[in-house]
Specification:
The chain has 166 residues and is of the alpha+beta class. Helix content is 18%, strand content 23%. Strand 4 and strand 5 form a beta hairpin. The longest helix has 16 residues. The radius of gyration is 16 Å and the shape is globular.
Length: 166
Amino acid sequence: MDNSFFSDFIGPFPDVLWEPAFLTPAHHAELLEFCLDGIQWQTKMASWGGRLVEFPRQLAWFGDVPYAYSGILHQPVAMPAPLKAVRQRIEAYLCDHGVPTDLNSVLLNRYRSGNDSIGMHSDDETQLGPQPVIASISLGDSRTFVFEHRRPACGTRTRSQGARSW
């Protein structure tokens, strides 16, 4: 199976693996239930245009170190066992595809409705290192996942990231 997002992308592009059935239906249901019922979701505020606005999604951070972006600081919180298990599965998948890595944290985003979102961003905070490995799993409804090159002439890729995909 060709799981490259960027086989026809113009110019330099990131290494992206896409696995549309990463979770079994049973594991997906179990993990979704855990996230809905077992996570203490937070609603964060940020300063935009001189006023405080609510982030258009709920957040939960799990990791050994603090994480800061967009004026938000997440304090270290121990990772629950179900998230550790998914992290280990992702690490094994990456290793099998020639990308050995140790993922050290999880940022959960809960999109409560079609009105919740996340804007274009780069995941380029210095604390992530020069070439961070980012894994994204979609639970529940499908969402559109957009990659946009920093040089507009190089193009944009959009993929519907359905439930269970990674």
